[in-house]
């Protein structure tokens, strides 16, 4: 018999589900199965589950035709489980590495009905908060088992389904199911403990309980939080049906109920002010209804006062106590902030500088009316006219001619702006004016921190690549690659986004976890790739002729990415040896990452007869169209170039170092878009033998294109313009 059946319900967790499944399947203990239930999720969760089921026979995919909610989804998974124990893990949480070894050892050694395990709350800022395990069990509970009446303090551990493994036969015999609605863990977790004859505790952190910045019900206001009451009613009705067997536990269960109610009420992110009095009244009603005949252990201190006010139904006093407590906490925060505040004189002096005066001008412009026809565009920190914003700008001129587009560029990049394109220079009064008054703000990176998005403004974040390397909040786990990145500042910038353009489902999943906020995702393909689809042979011939490239020459574009953790690093690459390996008809175009646009030194450039440095060329799409083969490493160029369905070679001499220091979302060497070379000698051999066009390389590219390029049909920019500028409904359809 399989030892453990993991039941993993999935709903709107596409950004986290891979980490969850990987954490289970990567454990040393392999005597497991995973029943992953797609609860008719509107995102790619179901597709991810199917992908894992296709490559690992331990994973079983269940696709529900309609959304049933977390509790019923768990029940459906339970009905399909065959393991001796069942472990319900939420799709946005994940297991600690190698924890399953100790879990399995304890299960096999003691055969408990329930095994409680420890957890940590893992916050979006990469900090962690320990559970109450050490407080509940100040001394190790040991390896033995017990009944709840002997150690009722076990009820003080968090009442979730995922911090306990339950013997499946015991659960089936008990007939216990998850109830529908929110707070479904309550009417499962407490009854399981009360009915168990053998409870074990493993004081080892096994679960990372993700504290999501956006999307969690604990951060969602609404009247659905009133569903906590019927869940607790189910607990007491079940105790009534069990008779006197649970009488001794009623006081402790009652105390937990009131504690839970007050916890929900005290969370301003759950109960809106206008609902608080009604919620309090329901607590009082349940207090009177379920109070044990002999009373219960009332907590000490402020918590005890709250319990007594609930018992008396004194809402006004309770509310006044809460207000006083919040005022005290606010005063303490202000005092701490005042102690940290330094340099007011220096700040006043800074306002006298030119930059300070321009910022004052910007703040004044924020009070002037929005220009309903103005759209501001920018790319790569004002490096010029390019990328997704440029593609959107061009289509907007056709479909929304009433919108006036203005570009922001650096002074040293003005000469790259095409004729007829209106622009302002970064740092000038006109720059601050358009930022303050534009209706639309379009960028493929973030605008500076000083920019304040007004309620009438629409911020469109286009991004500039499908991510191989980790991005956003995920970089917190890779401090070498992240450098001195200000993650709190990053999130303030992300909170300005109204729309986020995604090239494919994979990007959507990664942006969800890297940039958690309330923006709308436009999974439409990349606008900059439209040209790769629509350009015909005549345009390719024209471009090659302009570059002096013959129609029979083999043109290779070499475009390595930037290494944040190794400034100045260049992969070992000898252009002269490379073109000799190409043969007499070979030509090489070399393009460095845009981060290096200011550090190219004069002197002997890469500009030989058969090698050309195209790093300064503005439109990379032209280079893709001219090239017969792309050589890159971890750059997003591979995803764009794959649209052309031409050979791609990955040259990855530092893959292991890059993966460990910078962090990656997937092993691009295991799922490449073509041939892979890890040394320069191997790279030369691939071209000498024409292995870049081998059957294996072609099949790899086909698989890669199927995963990442299906949306690139030449209409991505149009879809963005129609939805963002014209307000037309999205073409995206529901997955259920």
UniProtKB/TrEMBL annotation:
It is a peripheral membrane protein. Keywords: Cell membrane, Membrane, Teichoic acid biosynthesis, Transferase. Its EC number is 2.7.8.12. The keyword Coiled coil does not apply. Gene3D superfamilies: 3.40.50.11820, 3.40.50.12580, Spore Coat Polysaccharide Biosynthesis Protein SpsA, Chain A (3.90.550.10). Residues 5-153 form the Glycosyltransferase 2-like domain. It is found in: Cell membrane. It is an enzyme of class 2 (transferase). CDD domains: Glyco_tranf_GTA_type. Pfam families: Glycos_transf_2, Glyphos_transf. Coiled coil: none annotated. InterPro entries: Glycerophosphate_synth, Glyco_trans_2-like, Nucleotide-diphossugar_trans, TagF_C, TagF_N, Teichoic_Acid_Biosynth. One of its GO terms (molecular function) is CDP-glycerol glycerophosphotransferase activity. PANTHER family: TEICHOIC ACID GLYCEROL-PHOSPHATE PRIMASE, TEICHOIC ACID GLYCEROL-PHOSPHATE TRANSFERASE. Belongs to the CDP-glycerol glycerophosphotransferase family. This is CDP-glycerol glycerophosphotransferase.
């Amino acid at each position: 018999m399989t030892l453990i059946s993991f039941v993993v319900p999935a709903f709107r967790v596409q950004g986290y589900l891979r980490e969850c499944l990987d954490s289970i399947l990567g454990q040393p203990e392999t005597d497991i199965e995973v029943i992953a239930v797609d609860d008719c999720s509107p995102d790619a969760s179901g597709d991810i589950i199917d992908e894992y089921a296709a490559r690992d026979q331990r994973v079983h995919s269940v696709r529900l035709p309609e959304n049933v909610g977390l509790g019923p989804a768990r029940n459906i998974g339970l009905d399909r489980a065959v393991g001796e124990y069942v472990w319900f893990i939420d799709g946005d949480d994940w297991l600690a590495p190698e924890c399953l070894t100790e879990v399995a050892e304890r299960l096999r050694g003691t055969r408990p009905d329930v095994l409680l395990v420890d957890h940590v709350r893992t916050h979006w800022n990469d900090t962690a908060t320990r559970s109450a395990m050490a407080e509940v069990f100040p001394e190790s509970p040991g390896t033995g088992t017990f009944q709840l009446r002997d150690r009722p303090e076990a009820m003080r551990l968090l009442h979730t389904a995922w911090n306990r493994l339950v013997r499946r036969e015991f659960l089936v015999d008990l007939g216990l199911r998850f109830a529908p609605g929110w707070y479904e863990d309550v009417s499962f977790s407490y009854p399981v403990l009360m009915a168990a004859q053998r409870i074990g505790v493993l004081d080892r952190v096994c679960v990372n309980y993700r504290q999501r910045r956006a999307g969690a019900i604990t951060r969602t206001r609404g009247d659905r939080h009133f569903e906590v009451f019927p869940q607790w009613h189910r607990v007491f009705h079940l105790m009534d049906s069990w008779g006197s067997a649970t009488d001794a536990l009623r006081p402790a269960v009652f105390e937990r109920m009131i504690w839970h109610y007050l916890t929900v009420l005290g969370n301003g992110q759950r109960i809106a002010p206008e609902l608080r009095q009604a919620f309090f009244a329901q607590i009082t009603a349940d207090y009177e209804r379920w109070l044990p005949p002999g009373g219960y252990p009332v907590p000490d201190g402020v918590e005890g006062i709250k319990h007594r006010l609930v018992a008396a139904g004194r809402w006004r006093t309770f509310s006044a106590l809460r207000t006083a407590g919040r005022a005290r906490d606010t005063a303490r925060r202000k005092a701490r902030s005042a102690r940290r505040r330094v340099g007011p004189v220096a700040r006043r002096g800074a306002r006298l500088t030119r930059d300070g005066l321009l910022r004052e001008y910007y703040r004044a412009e924020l009070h002037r009316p929005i220009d309903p026809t103005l759209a501001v565009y920018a790319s790569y920190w004002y490096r010029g006219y390019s990328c997704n914003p440029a593609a959107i700008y061009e289509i907007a001129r056709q479909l929304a001619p009433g919108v006036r587009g203005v570009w922001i560029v650096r002074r040293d990049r003005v000469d790259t702006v095409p004729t007829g394109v209106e622009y302002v220079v970064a740092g000038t009064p006109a720059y601050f004016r358009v930022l303050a008054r534009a209706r639309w703000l379009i960028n493929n990176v973030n605008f500076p921190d000083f920019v304040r998005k007004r309620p009438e403004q629409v911020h469109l974040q286009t991004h500039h690549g499908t991510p191989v390397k980790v991005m956003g909040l995920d970089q917190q786990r890779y401090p070498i690659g992240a450098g001195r990145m200000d993650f709190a500042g990053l999130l303030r910038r992300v909170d300005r986004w109204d729309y986020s353009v995604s090239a494919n489902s994979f990007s959507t999943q990664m942006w969800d976890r890297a940039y958690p906020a309330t923006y709308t995702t436009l999974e439409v393909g990349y606008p900059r790739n439209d040209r790769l689809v629509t350009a015909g042979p005549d345009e390719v011939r024209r471009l090659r002729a302009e570059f002096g490239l013959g129609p029979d020459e083999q043109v290779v574009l070499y475009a390595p990415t930037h290494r944040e953790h190794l400034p100045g690093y260049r992969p070992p690459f000898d252009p002269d040896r490379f073109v000799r390996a190409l043969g007499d008809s070979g030509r090489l175009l070399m393009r460095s990452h845009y981060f290096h646009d200011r550090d190219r030194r004069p002197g002997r450039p890469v500009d030989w007869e058969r090698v050309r440095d195209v790093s300064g060329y503005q439109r990379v799409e032209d280079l893709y169209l001219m090239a017969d083969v792309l050589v890159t490493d971890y750059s997003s160029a591979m995803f764009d170039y794959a649209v052309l369905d031409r050979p791609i070679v990955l040259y990855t001499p530092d893959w292991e170092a890059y993966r460990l220091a910078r962090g990656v979302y997937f092993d691009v060497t295991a799922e490449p878009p073509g041939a892979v070379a890890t040394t320069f000698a191997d790279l030369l051999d691939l071209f000498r033998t024409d292995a870049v066009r081998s059957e294996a390389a072609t099949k790899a590219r086909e698989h890669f294109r199927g995963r990442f390029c299906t949306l690139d049909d030449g209409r991505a920019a149009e879809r963005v313009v129609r939805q963002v500028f014209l307000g037309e409904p999205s073409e995206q359809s529901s997955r259920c």
